[in-house]
Amino acid sequence: MALFDMPLPELRAYRPQIDEPDDFDAFWAKTLAETRAHDPAVSFEPVETGLTGMRTWDVTFAGFGGHPIKGWFSAPADAEGPLPLVVQFHGYNGGRSLPHCWGMWPLAGFAHFVMDVRGQGSGGNVGDTPDPVGSGPSLAGFMTRGIEDPESYYYRRAYADAVRAVEAARSHPLADPARTVALGGSQGGGITLAVGALVPDLAAIAADVPFLCHFGRAVTLTDANPYAEIARYLKMHRGKEETVLRTLSYFDGVSFAARGSAPALFSVALMDQVCPPSTVFAAHNAYPGEKEIEVYPFNGHEGGAMFQEAAQLRWVPKALNRAV
Q1: Which Gene3D superfamilies does the record associate with it (predicted)?
Q2: Could you give the CA distance from residue 300 to residue 218 in angstroms, rounded to a whole number?
């Protein structure tokens, strides 16, 4: 593993022209209106975890299409609220896992909600949420499901679910809606950028080595999955490049970043071949709000790992204090 992208000074100045569709905002307004037409149907069921330092609820809410989406809501055991709320999105093919895996933010005095990304949860952490929507031909994984039409593309459902996740988590009596932070790494970082644009009153966001950014460059720069799923699809489905890239233009984290306003903490790893540094900097540099970025020169897609978590624990309270 070695540096394979641009030098850091060029990355810091990198502002590519993104081929954004004219109806980008209208598409997402329509998607969220359709999603919100369904009753949110939020339920919080207490669960026993064996942890004495926090309480946890098994959450179900209605996401895109009214489909049931799972999550865990946790809070410090003795909390009375309202508490600052962290809504977290996990990485590609992960899942909500088990409640004891999410103790960091409750131990720091926060309410915490982790959303189970639909259809995933068999490649790392276990998940509990099916995706009942079918698609046309696709490559194994999630990147090409419904990829020839933005209406049917997999991430239309996932991003809409994520917006509803914020709304569901905010409805818990221990959560303070005015102090809500969205964060995640890799896929979760890309979803965080989408949520940061689609939920305009967030107090802060933190996107760690975000995936789902600058698709046009990513699919030709790296051979690593998951972006390589798209390249392999196009290798077989010859002549579909324009159609596929048009679909992806509705889901590009750079376009969402350009609409962000909450204080934002990014991170990037300069040897990351899964989410190449130039794709991360494209999103960071497009972000118009207050922002910082942590750079890990000798790391791959693991990024800062526990060091980035420590950075978030320092940064998030400061961002919330400035937002009050």
Answers
A1: alpha/beta hydrolase (3.40.50.1820)
A2: 15
Q: 30: helix, coil or strand?
A: helix
Cα 63 from Cα 80, distance rounded (Å): 28
The dihedral of CA 304, 91, 141, 256: what is its sign? negative
Q: Which of 90, 214, 272, 284 is catalytic?
A: 272
Percent with pLDDT over 90 in the chain: 94
Choice among 112, 214, 284, 301 that is catalytic? 301
Report d(CA 58, CA 79) in Å as an integer: 18
Q: 99: which DSSP letter?
A: G
Nearest-5° Cα angle at 286, 33 to 281: 120
The pairs formed by 303-306 with CB atoms below 8 angstroms and a separation of 24 or more are 303/185, 303/208, 303/209, 303/267, 303/268, 303/269, 303/272, 304/208, 304/267, 304/269
Cα 297 from Cα 199, distance rounded (Å): 32
Q: What is the pLDDT of residues 249-282, one digit of tens each?
A: 999 999 999 999 999 999 999 999 999 999 999 9
Handedness of CA 290, 278, 196, 292 (dihedral sign): negative
Catalytic residue among 74, 97, 186, 267: 186
Q: How far apart are CA 19 and CA 246, in angstroms?
A: 8
- pLDDT digits over 205-258, tens only? 999 999 999 999 999 999 999 999 999 999 999 999 999 999 999 999 999 999
Asked if 158 contacts 69 with a C-beta cutoff of 8 angstroms, the reply is: no
Which three-class secondary structure string do you get for 199-210?
A: CCCCCEEEEECC
Supply the angle between the helices 187-198 and 154-170 in degrees, to the nearest 10: 70
54-62 and 43-47: which strand pairing? antiparallel
